[in-house]
Specification:
heterodimer, A: alpha+beta, OB fold (Dihydrolipoamide Acetyltransferase, E2P), 3 helices, elongated, B: alpha+beta, five-stranded antiparallel sheet, 5 helices
């Protein structure tokens, strides 16, 4: 009887822990920077931000539907930046499209040619409409190597 | 009082740990096969695209497009968000569904994302997307598997145990990943 009680308590704690999640969900290390950089500003002068840790706020307009390894955050003007995270470490849910999010990480840029070669023939299923969201800025494609995010539900 | 031997103890431990983790082992096995083949399919979601046309949208301002599109499609759901993605594309986000609206033509790609029944949930546990308390339980499960493996080796004695067939199978099973690693790394 006592053993059954311990087992039931353990299961209840496990389920309750998952169910107590609030209106927002933290991914990875979450967001620690208080001030967000506007995506507009980030894309207008990207070279000024490369290598810096930045936070962006906006609407999720694209998510990697297979692995959840990236999401696109877009501002109200339609400027978007992709948040790329390490596969499996952070997984953005495909059902978060349209939700509000804050994301943080290091702003990086890679040459367009290098990115094209890297992804040659490897686009994930269901990604065809988001594949070009990280618009090249001249010769470079910029993205945020994400360390964390908070998604509102 | 019956004498408690080493063998009786490991059989009892193997039996109880085995019963306790049998269900989770089945779930993890199903998920393991599912995610092993992630290059060939999406083990978590089904994504469908349906093309629709609602006719020319003319010069409707951006803040009126969502209502117009949803009205023409007969959708009463309130969108989570609506964003102008580019000069030619407007996106409307509904629950589990995104409308990619070409403007002003009114051509729409209706993208429906649904969790793959069963698989989404077992993958959620297996890949530890739950984090938190589940990490602890998954660690306990890993220790459980270790106990199952170690006790399993000593359950049978004689020709079918470690003295004969069991030893050969143990060596073969251990050698396969080692040989693979030697050849591939």
């Amino acid at each position: 009887m006592k053993r059954n009680l311990i087992l039931v308590t353990f299961v209840v704690l496990l389920v309750a822990g998952s169910a107590l999640a609030g209106d927002s969900t933290k991914y990875g290390e979450g967001v620690t920077l208080e001030k967000a950089v506007s995506i507009d500003q980030l894309l207008a002068s990207p070279a000024d931000y490369v290598g810096q840790e930045v936070r962006v706020d906006g609407t999720i307009t694209g998510v990697c539907k297979k692995r959840g390894c990236w999401m696109q955050v877009t501002d109200e003007k339609g400027n978007g930046v992709r948040i790329k995270v390490e596969d499996g470490v952070i997984v953005f849910p495909a059902t978060s499209m349209g939700n509000t999010a804050s994301a943080q990480g290091v702003f990086e840029g890679i040459p367009v040619a290098a990115q094209a070669k890297k992804h040659e023939g490897k686009e994930h299923e269901g990604d065809k409409h988001e594949a070009c969201d990280s618009k090249p800025q001249g010769e470079m494609v910029y993205f945020i190597k994400g360390t964390g995010a908070v998604i509102e539900s | 009082m019956a004498k408690v031997t080493f063998r009786k103890t490991i059989i009892a431990v193997h039996r109880d740990v085995g019963y306790f983790f049998a269900g989770l082992t089945v779930l993890y096995a199903i998920s393991g096969v599912a995610v092993n083949h992630i290059e060939d399919w999406n083990p978590n979601y089904t994504v469908t695209h349906t093309e629709r046309s609602i006719g020319d949208l003319g010069k409707i301002p951006d803040d009126g497009i969502a209502a117009e599109v949803l009205g023409r499609l007969g959708i009463k759901e309130k969108p989570k968000a609506a964003v102008r993605m580019s000069e030619k594309e407007y996106r409307i986000f509904l629950e589990d569904r995104t409308l990619h609206v070409a403007t002003p033509s009114g051509q729409i790609i209706d993208e429906l994302v649904s969790r793959r029944a069963g698989f989404f949930h077992v993958n959620y546990l297996h890949l530890n997307h739950a984090k938190g308390l589940w990490t602890w339980f998954a660690d306990i499960y890993a220790v459980g598997l270790l106990i199952l493996a170690m006790t399993g080796i000593f359950i049978i004695t004689g020709k079918k145990g470690l003295g004969g067939r069991g030893r050969r199978l143990l060596i073969a099973g251990t050698a396969i990943p080692l040989i693979f690693l030697l050849l591939k790394t």
